[in-house]
Amino acid sequence: MNSKGMDKLTLFLIPIGVAVNFIGGQIAILLRLPLYLDSIGTIVVGALCGGIPGVIVGVISNVLNSITSPVTLFYAILSIIFALSAAFCSKHKVFLSLPKTILFSIWFAFVGGGLGACITWLLFSFDFGTITASMFAIPLYEVFGIPKFWAQFISEFTMDLLDKSVSLVLVFFILKSMPTRFLAKLPLGEIYVKEEY
What are phi and psi of 185, to 5 degrees? Predict the structure, then answer.
């Protein structure tokens, strides 16, 4: 069993994780889904290879996205937390159970939506951002009279809860579908190999 953190296979998976993030994000944009789907690669690599490789995937993804949308770079902290959380979930066998996986989507949504809302609030000078969640936040503020920050927070958390629920279910099935030979070569892969016997 390979226990190295940054072996050749881990290094090989990093660009694949970045590509999965990009493709997922583009699918969400093209289909106009109320989802992001741009952290699946980060979570899978974090779950299989550990926090640091997952962090690398997440940060590279944010840097690449910042070329066309500079504000994206400020959300890299979310990707870092996603990767570390994915490694934590793996080590505690969360991704071996679909109910546990879905339950943990609340944590990922709190990071993406809750912390994300705080970052948006600061970046846009204590006002609504230009991101998709603002389309829902503005009516909460104008129609229901919810304070701006809480309207943004509720909107982003709700969207992120949907996004992370879908993303983590996809991660669960991706991990479940991987062959034993492949998993056995990854730093955290043995967690999933044992479950197959």
Answer: -95, -5
Residue 170 maps to which CATH number? 1.10.1760
Place of tokens 């709700």: 158
Q: Which of 86, 71, 69 is nearest to 17 (CA)?
A: 86
Two tokens at 151? 């309207």
Q: Is the dihedral of CA 60, 63, 68, 70 positive or negative?
A: positive
Neighbours of 162 (CB within 10 A): 17
For the chain, what is the radius of gyration of the CA atoms? 17
Helices 116-123 and 76-91 sit at what angle, rounded to 10 degrees?
Answer: 170
Condensed to tens digits (0 to 9), the pLDDT of residues 104-157 reads 999 999 999 999 999 988 988 888 876 667 788 889 999 999 999 999 899 999
Identify which of 64, 56, 2, 39 has the alpha carbon closest to the alpha carbon of residue 166: 39
Does any domain span residue 1?
A: no
User: Residue 95 carries which DSSP code?
Assistant: G
Q: Say what the pTM is.
A: 0.92
Q: Is residue 111 in a domain?
A: yes
